[in-house]
Amino acid sequence: MSVGRLDFLFDPRSVAVVGASPTPGKISHIIMESLEGSGYRGEVYPVNPKYTTVRGLRCYPSLREIGKPVDLAILAIPAQEVVDVVKDGEGVVKGCIVISGGFGEKDERGRLLERELRMLSSRSGIRIVGPNCMGVFDAVTGLDTFFIPRDRVKRPGRGRLSILSQSGSFALTAIDELASEGIGVARVVSYGNRLDVNETDCLEFLAEDDATGAVAIYIESVDDGRRFIDVARRCAMKKPVMAIKVGRTAPGITAAGSHTGAMAGRYEIYRTAFKKASIIELRGFEDFIDGCKALGRYDPPKGNRVVIITDGGGVGVNIADACCELGLKVPSLEEDLKKRIEKEFPPFFIVGNPLDLTGSVTDELFAKAVERTLRNKRFDMAIVAALWGPPGLTDRLPEILARKARAIKKPVIICSPGGEYARKKRALFRKYGFPVFTTPESSARAGWVLSKTSQRGGRRRS
Prior knowledge:
Elements: H1 7-10, E1 14-18, H2 27-37, E2 43-47, E3 53-54, E4 57-58, E5 70-75, H3 79-88, E6 93-98, H4 108-124, E7 127-129, E8 135-138, E9 143-144, E10 158-165, H5 168-180, E11 185-190, H6 199-207, E12 214-219, H7 225-236, E13 241-245, H8 250-260, H9 267-276, E14 280-282, H10 285-297, E15 306-310, H11 313-326, H12 335-344, E16 355-356, H13 363-374, E17 381-385, H14 397-408, E18 412-415, H15 420-431, E19 436-437, H16 440-455
Parallel strand pairs: 1-2, 1-5, 5-6, 6-7, 10-11, 10-12, 12-13, 13-14, 15-16, 15-17, 17-18, 18-19
Antiparallel strand pairs: 3-4, 8-9, 8-11
Helix pairs in contact: 3-4, 6-7, 10-16, 11-16, 13-14
């Protein structure tokens, strides 16, 4: 498949919404709202023989009666009507997103419908995304086909991370979390049953996509393993690729089959494939979100050596353990650096790695500790565990640390555990561009993902 042939999916000049309705709350109406709310600038054609106008736009009886070529048609109609509508779109549309469920994931009748739709796609050349999917959210072009209202699931701003997911709910939950953390995305695709367009097709597009700096994939199964490994390896040579494989256990495999009709396959085979393709494997939703936050914000470090700076000794030890268990290095301070810090800092600070600044810390001492340690060639990144109890810490801390991080050009990972007071302060870190990790383990996972990008030659941001 030619990569260029997926341009219609991410940057369509025109979109038809089949099944368009003026009734608030209906799926097709929400899709129309999503397109308007996202700032999509192309032509939008409602299609439904029941209406003459929808949301102030002329409504057409059928795709063919639009009378113009259409890049992308979004089908929000009953499953049994989909084949006829796609037939009507032959010679008119380049591709369709089939939102409708009730296909191969449901029963034998649905599998027959899916088979007929696949043959129609192959014969006509119309590319199909879905069925049983959310479609595309594209922060680059403003395309949003998701049928969940924006007041229930926030859409992220533009960033460098692209997400591919068989599961629509997984993609929605992920972007909602990322939006709340201030992490942007480039392209997000939910492709459901993968009747035609699948993860490998999308990955091939993203490998050459300048707007994408890293890729995260949710996988239930893969159709063509050899092609997937080849494409993923080529993509990983240019930018980091990470993936979570679900359906690792017998109950998970059964659930995947009823969810998207996927045959999940043996997990050991996928682990081997990920290694061959240089894919960073993630183990769960927390891993996925931590990885997305890390790759969505930071450049790859040069290595895996971490300096830990904290004002709480126990948290620092916890982070050190978590780092070592993941394979990160926590080197001791060189003797010259240790003596310099002991000379410049209060005598009751515990000088080592972790570097414990105790409850007498101030904003300036935190920033100075980051600068003194992270400028040393012995360290590739820092994890700063800021506990907000000490009275010497103020709202200026995130801004000061952000200036130091920009000047040093190494990742500074923020760990900020705590309750109500700490939650309010986390917003300050996000304001100055820091993703916030709330546990020692999550901050260590972020460092681990970043270290894997350095080992795989992940492309630095321009």
